[in-house]
Design a protein that fits this description.
The structure is a homodimer. Chain A folds into 3 domains: 44 residues, lambda repressor-like DNA-binding domains (434 Repressor (Amino-terminal Domain), Orthogonal Bundle), CATH 1.10.260; 126 residues, 3-Layer(aba) Sandwich (Rossmann fold); 132 residues, Response regulator (Rossmann fold, 3-Layer(aba) Sandwich). Helices cover 46% and strands 17% of the residues of chain A. The first copy, chain A, has a 6-stranded parallel β-sheet, with helices on both faces. The termini of chain A are far apart. At the A-B interface, helix 4, strand 1, helix 5, strand 2 and helix 6 of A face helix 4, strand 1, helix 5, strand 2 and helix 6 of B. Strand 2 of chain A pairs antiparallel with strand 2 of chain B. The first copy, chain A, binds a DNA duplex through helix 2 and helix 4.
Chain lengths: 338, 338
DNA sequence: CCGGTTCGCCGAATCGGTTCGACCTAGATC
DNA sequence: GATCTAGGTCGAACCGATTCGGCGAACCGG
């Protein structure tokens, strides 16, 4: 069921079948139809490996995701879904590679075995050796996230620094003066996880600008951790009246801790954050948050990667998203705690 | 940077390099080291396409997921994560293909372009033409889920029928006599979505066995739908005191509807369901549910697929998981509603 | 000293496409 | 009527690996 078989049955040369399929040279209407008929009869489809070998490209992109062991956040899932979707729309397949931990081989295979034409890299650290490896391999890539030297790579990212800063300003406008930032896990931040550091920077900046009192806390990515984190914060800092957070996954736990402490949201305590819209809207009460446009960012990442593959020498482009804060049900005027 | 270049620099034939790498024929220790040195110096990795072409296999498996447009449930995500993980562990890459909707081409490419050695298919309908296509293509595949004729395919699945039946029996044991089943969306059920139908069958059976009064309701996969669905159920069936459900995504909305109706869980109203453990544990109160062992099922699916690829003629195997119900905080003795 | 193994390696064929040069024919141009 | 052009097709080379048959050298027993 290869191109030779088609050619034989249609009574033409293999090259003619190829041209009939690709249209790179004219083929008479009559011949084309004869070939087409045979192809449909045998349900023939060109062998992807053979084509990739000769053409030097695979029509496949790699998507490097965090390892499965650590649960993906709603936002990360949104990225994966839209990347797959956008790629399918462009007739590209997506090869998944869990990087980090024990799966080095997977990343290595994808990067170095010419299995893909380009890579989209998620969960980038400020210093990220995967970026280094990709760079020296010459494979086109786009980051969802960026390193500390973002100039010489192409990326899309969420402007956590600005967004957390805006959250703090919003809370300050409501009269809050003692605000905590609930960050992602301590390990992630220690490992140089970009959003964690940038959120902290934005928090520090805004707190200084408004002359507030800020508390920084790390929190693992699950509801249980959110609960105990906020319990601890409330105990150690009785003056707190508001939280800003980028930790989506822990939010339900944070809600629970506040409820258990007898604090009503937003009457007694306010929360503002950065989250996927879907998540924010489905919380109870719905979260006042900057809604990360995952769909747009994911699609844009694919688009940029396609451009990069087509013209690897083109200048690097960047997209920093800073969506406005959607006021929902979790922020209100400050009220001193009992 | 191909095998010829390595051969040249090492002063041997290309075939020798190949044998040194694969070990399929003996190569002297000295020659092997010389070759190895060149390989490491140039950071050479064999071209995946060329190898796939010659070997006739790609060392890649396809994972067919529901289209991104419909959000994946926690359980589905669990499957994706563990499949990717298990595949990576077996040195297999995973090609993602969103099927359904507008992405027919993606599925077609994966199935028919010999891009993968086998396929794992998720979200299977009772009658599923993707199964038909896979079957006639001769490509090995494993279902996570099964059709209405499950004998002649290999699959792993969750025994929704038994599990929902057990939920009902558990609720009946607690004295509940008026129970609703909250199913997945009406469209999904109408389209012949297996879990929906099997859950309904189990529900009907248990209700009959215990001589109960059962109400069946479909509900879209989001919190908002869960809220309005339960609101409606409470209004139309004031006698209800318990819900059994397989709709993970709608559960938070269901909680909210009960709370708004002034019904405390589990004091005034009980809920039992089938869900990913992670989700059940993180609800407030934690859900009494049969915890679907996604990790085991996903890993097993990969394992079965690998066997099937190795020996396509081997008999079909099946794994039907019926985990026990974990009693958490959402079921208690029946108490007639006001 | 000779026939038979074994070891280590080479050369060539092969997988299934794409692509380039060449050829033939028919119609247009002058 | 000779020359040119364009359309339509063919044959062969090529992409980068794997794999099979075979060949020379070393080694063995008789």
């Amino acid at each position: 069921m290869n191109i030779g078989e088609i050619a034989r049955r249609a009574g033409v040369a293999r090259s003619t079948v190829s041209y009939a399929l690709t249209g790179k040279r004219p083929v008479s209407e009559e011949t084309r139809q004869r070939i087409q008929a045979v192809i449909e009869e045998l349900n023939y489809r060109p062998n992807a490996a053979a084509r990739a070998l000769k053409e030097g490209r695979t029509r496949t992109i790699g998507l490097v995701i965090p390892p499965a062991s650590q649960r993906l956040t709603d936002m990360q899932l949104g990225f994966v879904a839209t990347v797959v979707d956008a790629a399918a729309r462009a007739d590209l397949d997506v090869l998944l590679s869990p990087s980090g931990g024990e799966h080095e081989r997977s990343f290595e295979r994808v990067v170095t075995g010419r299995r893909v034409d380009g890579v989209i890299l998620m969960e980038i650290r400020l210093e990220d050796d995967r970026v280094t490896r990709l760079r020296q391999s010459g494979l086109p890539f786009v980051g969802i996230g960026r390193t500390s030297h973002p100039e010489d790579m192409t990326w899309v990212d969420v402007d956590y620094e600005t967004l957390i800063s805006q959250c703090v300003h919003h809370l300050a406008d409501l009269g809050h003066r003692d605000i905590a930032l609930v960050n992602r896990s301590a390990e992630l931040v220690a490992a140089g996880y970009g959003p964690g550091h940038r959120a902290q920077a934005g928090f520090t900046r805004a707190v200084a600008q408004r002359d507030l009192h800020g508390v920084h806390a790390c929190c693992a990515d699950d509801a249980q951790a959110g609960l105990s984190c906020v319990e601890r914060l409330l105990a150690e800092h009785p003056e707190l009246t508001a939280i800003a957070t980028i930790n989506e996954t822990a939010i339900t736990g944070m809600y629970r801790a506040l409820a258990q402490a007898g604090l009503a949201v937003p009457k007694d305590f306010s929360i503002a954050g950065v989250a996927a819209r879907h998540l924010a809207e489905n919380l109870d009460p719905p979260l006042t948050s900057a809604d990360v446009p995952t769909i747009e960012l994911g699609a844009r990442a694919v688009e940029l990667l396609i451009q990069r593959i087509a013209d690897p020498g083109s200048p690097h482009r960047h997209l920093l998203a800073a969506p406005p804060i959607s006021l929902r049900g979790t922020t209100g005027p400050a009220r001193p705690r009992a």
